Amino acid sequence: MSRESLEHQADRAEALAAQTADAEVKQNLLDAAREYRSRLKSEPFEPKPEWDLPKEIS
Fold first, then answer.
1. Residue 33 near residue 10, CB atoms below 8 Å
2. Torsion angle of the four alpha carbons 13, 16, 17, 20, in this order, in degrees rounded to the nearest 10
3. Which pLDDT tens digit goes with each residue over 1-58?
4. List of long-range contacts for 27-35, beta carbons under 8 Å, 24+ apart
5. Sign of CA dihedral 13, 15, 16, 18
6. Measuring CA to CA, which residue among 11, 56, 47 is closest to residue 29?
7. Distance between CA atoms of 3 and 44, rounded to whole angstroms?
8. Which among 5, 11, 30, 55 has the fewest CB atoms less than 10 Å away?
């Protein structure tokens, strides 16, 4: 996953956890968000290029 995707997934899991009343589901979502955030800190990411190739080329 890209850095942006991991950040998005972590944010989404935290938002869903805040909305749920089920304690087990809430804990699972918070655990997932914590895992995503730890992956953000531990995985090396290549810098995003300043330009994108057209879809026909890539």
1. yes
2. -160
3. 788 889 999 999 999 999 999 999 999 999 999 999 999 888 776 666 677 777 776 5
4. 33/9
5. positive
6. 11
7. 9
8. 55
